[in-house]
Write a structure and sequence with these properties.
This protein is mainly α. It is built from 16 helices and 2 strands. A two-stranded antiparallel ribbon has the order 1-2. A hairpin with a 2-residue loop joins strand 1 and strand 2. Helix 5 packs antiparallel against helix 6. The longest helix has 21 residues. The termini are far apart. The relative contact order is 0.10.
Length: 337
């Protein structure tokens, strides 16, 4: 049936209409993916003409992404929502990963010419991606133990496995949405809004140098900051459209944007450095494993490397002296300067 182009097109339309129902049945089934009808997606989504038709006319990107998000359990966490990581079992991630593979197929083969209608649809898809990343932002935090060893290790694997799956998707998203100047600017604005919305609603204290008071050794620390990393992956494409970082980040309207954008990636880098020198021994193997993957080749390009890129971007738009002072204080080197 799929050898005939007309039949393949009709099949693909029905397939995307029933996508959520098919994936729901697959998640609660025990059959292998190879003998499931969901495995037909590779034949549908990798055909450029079919993929482009599904993306433009049937919102295939948003359909696949929203389907994945609908199966991920979240819980209220203050003014934001976070993933219920204990619920992300090995079985769930093993079977839900195929939805993210479908997303990569569409991103690789479904790109067509930009139109006003397509831009609006794709931005809706980008908002859905931001919703998922906001749920992953800041999870698995740890506080350094200085007296007793932790009674049991943190369950760190679900968030890392999900991050590894997203490492296949995020570079394609950045490449896709940066191909048009208007879409790139809008995506950067949406990401900045998501980062601001996800910041803790608490009173922030500053020292005499106008630097936020925070000590990685004593405060809650984690390596999971996907929103700033997505922003970094978008900013590197500014040169394609002769855009400056100052224009994309609206530095003229918000001069302090670089200072608060560098906080989270810098905290992750300092956290990794402290773990590597043995300051977090009493926190068990969980933090060691997280930092190992943070700097490992499987995740490094979308975690550690993007943190470095964002720090470089922040250094380019903020006062150099303030940038250096912030680095010195976060690494605890003030007494040696």
């Amino acid at each position: 049936m799929l050898l005939e182009s007309t039949c393949k097109k009709l099949f693909s339309i029905e397939f995307i209409k029933l996508y959520h129902e098919l994936q729901d049945q697959f998640l609660h089934d025990d059959h292998d993916h190879a003998i499931s009808v969901t495995s037909m997606s590779v034949q549908v989504f990798t055909t450029p003409s079919i993929a482009q038709m599904l993306v433009v006319e049937h919102d295939a990107l948003k359909c696949v992404l929203d389907t994945f998000i609908s199966f991920v359990e979240v819980e209220e966490h203050g003014h934001t929502k976070k993933l219920k990581l204990p619920k992300l079992s090995f079985h769930f991630l093993d079977r839900s990963q195929w939805m993210l593979y479908d997303l990569t197929y569409l991103l690789q083969h479904g790109k067509g010419e930009w139109t006003a209608a397509q831009k609006a649809k794709f931005l809706d898809c980008f908002r859905s991606l931001l919703r998922l990343l906001m749920c992953l932002q800041g999870v698995d935090t740890s506080i350094r133990q200085t007296t007793l060893h932790v009674p049991y290790d943190l369950d760190w694997e679900p968030a890392i496995r999900l991050q590894m799956l997203l490492c296949r998707v995020l570079p394609l998203v950045a490449q896709w949405f940066s191909s048009d100047a208007e879409v790139l600017c809008r995506c950067v604005t949406l990401t900045l809004e998501a980062i601001e919305k996800n910041r803790p609603r608490r009173r922030v204290k500053y020292d005499s140098d106008r630097i936020e008071v925070f000590d990685v050794s004593n405060g809650p620390s984690t390596i999971h900051y996907p929103l700033p990393r997505l922003l970094a992956s978008l900013l590197v494409h500014a040169g394609k459209h002769d855009l400056t970082l100052q224009e994309l980040l609206n530095v003229n309207e918000d001069p302090g944007v670089g200072q608060y954008l560098m906080e989270e990636p810098l905290r992750a880098i300092v956290f990794a450095a402290q773990v590597n020198v043995g300051q977090w021994r009493r926190n068990g193997y969980a933090v060691l494993s997280q930092v190992c993957y943070y700097q490992h080749i499987s995740c490094r390009s979308q975690m550690y490397d993007q943190d470095i890129v964002l720090l470089q971007a922040c250094a380019a738009v903020m006062d150099p002296e303030l940038f250096i002072r912030t680095l010195v204080k976060r690494f605890g080197l003030a007494k040696w300067t």
